[in-house]
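Weekly sync, protein design subgroup
Attendees: M.S., D.O., the rotation student, P.L. (late)

Item 1: inverse folding check
M.S. brought a backbone from last month's batch and wanted to see whether the design step gives back something sensible before we order anything. D.O. pointed out we never logged the input encoding, so this time it goes straight into the notes. Structure tokens as presented (161 positions):
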């Protein structure tokens, strides 16, 4: 048993419906901190892992409020499956979805998934949109240009592509 609040979107649609075993029909919102899962383009994944000094989050529910976040984990490998279809271009996100897939969560270019915690903010609902800004500190413009050029070179001549 888990203590918390049950969140069941579209619960009226479930009345008299058959639901297959294993299908999520709701979430238990356990008391605790709000968490955000962000997708980071593969070329920037190393930068986020190694140089992130802090992160700021803006929630769609309160766009004028900037919340300080702490990185609590990440998926160690790149993936082409997003945690939400809202991150793909079909849902208004920045990542190009795979036209061969109908679910809208499979994308063409791999991303890294990063988990953030927002201390002092309670979880109220599942599935909200958030914008994340990672702070990597200061770096001279020439070094930034060199890093991007190296990434382009490696991307162009990568044997995996």
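Designed sequence read out in the meeting:
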């Amino acid at each position: 048993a888990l203590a918390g609040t049950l969140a069941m979107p579209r619960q009226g649609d479930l009345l008299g419906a058959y639901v297959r075993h294993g299908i999520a029909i709701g979430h238990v919102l356990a008391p605790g901190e709000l968490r955000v899962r962000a997708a980071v383009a593969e070329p920037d994944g190393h930068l986020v892992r190694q140089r992130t000094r802090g992160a700021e989050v803006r929630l769609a529910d309160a766009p004028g409020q900037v919340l300080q976040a702490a990185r609590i984990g990440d998926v160690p490998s790149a993936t082409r499956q997003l945690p939400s279809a809202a991150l793909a271009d079909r849902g208004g996100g920045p990542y190009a979805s795979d036209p061969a897939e109908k679910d809208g969560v499979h994308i063409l270019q791999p991303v890294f998934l990063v988990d953030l915690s927002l201390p002092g903010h309670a979880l109220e609902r599942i599935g909200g949109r958030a914008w994340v800004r990672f702070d990597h500190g200061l770096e001279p413009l020439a070094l930034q240009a060199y890093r991007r050029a190296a990434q382009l070179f490696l991307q162009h001549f990568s044997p995996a592509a």
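Discussion: The first strand starts at residue 5 and ends at 7. The chain has two helices and eight strands.
Action: P.L. to compare against the previous round before Friday.
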